[in-house]
Amino acid sequence: xxxxxxxxxxxxxxxxxxxxxxxxxxxxxxxxxxxxxxxxxxxxxxxxxxxxxxxxxxxxxxxxxxxxxxxxxxxxxxxxxxxxxxxxxxxxxxxxxxxxxxxxxxxxxxxxxxxxxxxxxxxxxxxxxxxxxxxxxxxxxxxxxxxxxxxxxxxxxxxxxxxxxxxxxxxxxxxxxxxxxxxxxxxxxxxxxxxxxxxxxxxxxxxxxxxxxxxxxxxxxxxxxxxxxxxxxxxxxxxxxxxxxxxxxxxxxxxxxxxxxxxxxxxxxxxxxxxxxxxxxxxxxxxxxxxxxxxxxxxxxxxxxxxxxxxxxxxxxxxxxxxxxxxxxxxxxxxxxxxxxxxxxxxxxxxxxxxxxxxxxxxxxxxxxxxxxxxxxxxxxxxxxxxxxxxxxxxxxxxxxxxxxxxxxxxxxxxxxxxxxxxxxxxxxxxxxxxxxxxxxxxxxxxxxxx
Length: 451
Description:
mainly alpha; about 5% strand; elongated
């Protein structure tokens, strides 16, 4: 217990510590500046740094760029040429002002040829909508002079329904949709095969151009340029998709038209077959009737004569009806040919009008361009006088920058203080532990001896 009590370590002076850290930071900054200012020498000129003492020991730097002798002579020559051209340009301003001040004379330009378009065609008239029957059909034999005869003759059944089992169904539903999708996909793939390499090349060219211009990748300028290209590419592929849809719809319409034509042809053949069967049945019935008349013991020659007269009358009526039908069909074909001729003539006239308008418009545009060229030529001459050879400005490479961090002064001082404080706290804890042990011995009745 004869040892002296431990003393707490003294805390670092914050002002002294901060001043030491500031001095270290300033020395580091001066060293970084000296390391980063590197003189550069190029074929076109030099870049040099000079220093002068500054306040608080911090040097001041001056950056100087000098041209090579050849570039300096070109620079001086360019200044002299620019001064000379400026004088010529000032004298040319009078011609520019006089020419631009004059209004363009449009009276010498060719007029546009815009003739009225033929928008209508003579209507299709005179079509035959019914056929002259050629007289009444004799459907009953005059039996007033004919004796009794057998009435039970018959021949087959009359066909009152058409057999449409061979008529193909109209194409529609999934078949039309499948064909349309197939044609649309084929048309789009064809255009995509043309567009893919083109847009890939444009993207590669744009990226190379941006790199050569020094635009960093993923910068705002880079992203804007690539975004514009992507929108143009999306628009081009959208147009290709729309064109493919139109081609697929046209293929669908063509398939439906072909199916409809096949259906109509097969139905017409079934109708002709039914008519032929009924005609054959009617002919067979007539023949059976004739056989019955011949074999009938009660029939007379009068009945045969009457039947023959009826057949002859009906044949004549059928012949007249057939000839009338042919005449009506021929008249309708002639009327349709006249309508088509009028339509073709109108289309040709409209094409000629369009061609004449386009040619006159091209001539007028050419004349307008020549007037504008004559008006703008003095200004173009003046602008050409303002340009000339310029010296090549030296291009200096980016100097690798050194950014050495300052020395940490506060940290080590604080660590030293914390270590001293930890030692002091350890001594206090040891003394307290020893004192607690003595108090325990005294409580147990043991004598304490202090020396």
